[in-house]
Specification:
about 130 residues, 7-stranded mixed β-sheet, 2 helices, about 40% strand
Length: about 130
Amino acid sequence: MAITKVVCGIILKDDLVLICRRKPEKSLGGYWEFPGGKVEESESYEESLLRELIEELNLKVEIKQHFFNTVHHYDKGAIELISFICETENIATQSTDHDRLEWIKVSDLLNWKLAPADIPIAKELIEKIKDWK
């Protein structure tokens, strides 16, 4: 079975990170995630992430670096979630794919109901953020 490539942005502003809650009618409805989406065939990971963030959040970001990849097997197939550290000067206030957006402390990430594929990225981020300070 093919693995679907999905990109997500770890969007940092000050000491906060952006998470988004999936709309109830979507798969994994009610779960929180780092924003992003599926990689289209002709795109690089970075191009895909920039496109998805503009489409979903109307948010322009600067991609700083690749962060962490994880593979997760859901009932309907597997995804490889490819994350990037991003910064923005803007604030996202609404989303086409999500019903809520929150800027939270990185240290609080695991207190939220994260999508299963996002949990390893959150754990890695909590560890790494200590080294970056």
